[in-house]
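For concreteness, we quote verbatim a single protein encoded this way:
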Amino acid sequence: MNDIHEAELVGNETAKCRRMPWWGWVLGVLGVLIGVPICIVTAAVLYIGVVSPDTSVYPGKAMPQRFITEMKDLGALSENEEVLYFYSDAFIDIRDGFYSVSDRRVVIYSEMMEGDPLVIYEFPVSSEYNRDEDFFEAISLRLQPSESSDAEIDDWQLDDDV
């Protein structure tokens, strides 16, 4: 038999008490000091990945139900309205900012805007084929500066020079 088994059979009289060497303690402490923060950061990144909205446009049918519920809570979506497209530039909570196009209106919501964070653009759209003149006129009026203001057309608006 080997010495360890003999020591167990005889008793602990001949067995030496083995302690962990100093470098083992140093490695253990370093492992905890490095491993715990890595686990915390990994958990945080996973949480953000699960909770935050995608960085792409959602088609209306692919939109998560929790986003629809939040939009209704904010008054950005009525009961009989169908969202066609949705996008959020928020990091975690869509209440920081989102944009949607529905079958009735365009909604812009941003906490960083001064004043009311909810802006709703409604426009008339005919459901008949080739009968969307009202919609075209509504968009054309928005693209033309009013005569009473000194506002200039921004780059995003139609530019004849381009």
Remarks:
- The two ends are 93 Å apart (CA to CA).
- The first helix runs from residue 3 to 10.
